[in-house]
Amino acid sequence: MKVFVTGGSGYVGEAVLRHLSLSGHECRALSREAEAHRRRLTALPGVYPVRGDVTASSVDQLAGLMAKCEAVVHLAGIIVEKGTAGFEAVHTEGTRRVLAAAERAKAKRFLHMSALGTRENAVARYHQTKWAAERIVRGSQIPWTVFRPSIIFGERDEFLNVFAGIARRSPAVPVIGPGRGRLQPIWVEDVARCFAGALARPETQGQSYDLGGERAYALEELLRMVAAALGKRRMFIHLPVPLARLQARLFNLLPGKPPFTEDQVTMLGEDNVCDPGPMKRAFGFEPRSLEDYLKERFGQG
């Protein structure tokens, strides 16, 4: 099958492309900087980077790039707005544009990356715009499948690696708020397995799947696990939520990508958990444990 993938140059996108390639699919990977990623992506058999932008390319341009593709995998998204077109432009209007192009190109399947916690009346703008995008997908005539992953961990992730970097350098690790909000991280390769598997499973059409690991962890527990995996004894300093919000505003005034944002502080104020049972039954695998990953990644028992 010929598959068009948005967000293919990201770390989730590369894993999805790898699984699609291993399954024998031919993929066109949309990227704003296709040439910069060409060597890395074309190392995967049957993967061809194409230049485009879900917020800037026209529907006609996107449809042209999708020509003869039978399926569209829409992964493009952001977690930090600074330096980007913003949540609404990327998540909501970008999805509207990609879906319109898919309909024009007569694609037969549409797989959409949403996020766990996305729902009507969500408190974080990230989740609000993801929910708006889901509603657009659900209104399509193309058979669709929606995936809602929790925090995704992997070699290039921007969550565990950030805190691992802090734990390596600093005797104190900050914990936003009380640190009791629960997260259910899932391995990037397991997320990719679901996307690739959905193309071979017609029964996944019209379905939404929450993607999470077998266990949920309180935020502080998770951070302590990272430090232990590194073999580091660290203090854990709780940062009151109002102070964390103030810091996030200050970070946004400085150059570079902020370590955390106000919207992320909001999201950490609620649990981000799910029942992984439907995912396991639909795609036939047990998710990799975080403990196993941390032991392999950071080399401690």
How are the secondary structure elements laid out?
Blueprint: E1 2-6, H1 11-22, E2 26-31, H2 34-42, E3 47-51, H3 59-65, E4 71-74, H4 87-104, E5 109-113, H5 125-138, E6 144-149, E7 152-153, H6 160-169, E8 172-176, E9 182-183, E10 186-187, H7 188-199, E11 207-211, E12 217-218, H8 219-229, E13 235-239, H9 241-253, H10 262-267, H11 277-283, H12 290-298
Helix pairs in contact: 1-7, 3-4, 4-5
Structure, explained:
- The protein has 301 residues and is an alpha/beta fold.
- The protein has a domain of 189 residues: 3-Layer(aba) Sandwich (Rossmann fold).
- It contains twelve helices and 13 strands.
- The strands form four sheets. Strands 3-2-1-4-5-6-11 form a seven-stranded parallel beta sheet, with helices on both faces. It has a two-stranded parallel sheet with strand order 7-10.
- Strand 4, helix 4 and strand 5 form a beta-alpha-beta unit.
- Helix 1 crosses helix 7, helix 3 packs across helix 4 and helix 4 packs parallel to helix 5.
- It starts with a strand and ends with a helix.
